[in-house]
Amino acid sequence: MPQTTEPPQSARLVEAVLFDFHGTLAQVEDPVTWVVAAAAACGAELGLAKATILADRLVTAGRAGGPLPHRVPPHLAEHWADRDLYERSHRAAYTGLASTVHTDVEGLADALYDRLLVPEGWLPYPDTEPTLRRLHEAGIKVAVVSNIGFDIRPHFAHWGLSGLVDAFALSYEVGRAKPDPAIFLRACGMLGVDPERTLMVGDTPADAGAVQAGCAALVLPAAEAGRNNGLGATLALAGCN
């Protein structure tokens, strides 16, 4: 069930909504599709059985947008710690983790990472567009606040959502990562709104860190790609229903 932290006393007080990206507005493609597409980019064709086994191993090793890796090798520890602050560390961490999985597809680790950088590697949730549009129509400002190591603006442009987002506060650009209050305060500054009139919507405890910046927070459970994750609950809290 969705959990709220310090909801606004009156829906009329909400002037802006901050959204997490992964697990809130969009989800990565399913692992087998990810592996098959990356292998194809390397000129290799994988059968379903082989792709499924390989996908399981790669997800266990550590996939961006997937569960945390079971183990981070010592030579990747520094990049892993800095992955949301620097583009080079984000790529190095995830290509390095993928490289720990044996495969006969040359260049697969980089091709797997490159799927993150294109909109085709992601799927917006069904409620994303209607929720953002309704907020936009109501005059409520929107920012995307994400712990991430690459630019996601092209994804929103590809999905036709750019006009529904007023600002992007991305950790690798801001130099701070959630739950640090600074990234939420930066997003509020970009929008020109008071944190006390702002709602943060995400899917992890890190997103609830917005409370320390003075925002209200709504934490929703992440869902599989293509499934409703309850994002529409945002509209009730923002007074748009």
UniProtKB/TrEMBL annotation:
InterPro entries: HAD-like_sf, HAD-SF_hydro_IA, HAD_sf. SUPFAM superfamilies: HAD-like (SSF56784). Keywords: Hydrolase. Pfam families: Hydrolase. GO terms for molecular function: hydrolase activity. NCBIfam families: HAD-SF-IA-v1, HAD-SF-IA-v3. PANTHER family: HALOACID DEHALOGENASE-LIKE HYDROLASE (HAD) SUPERFAMILY PROTEIN, PTHR46649. This is Hydrolase.
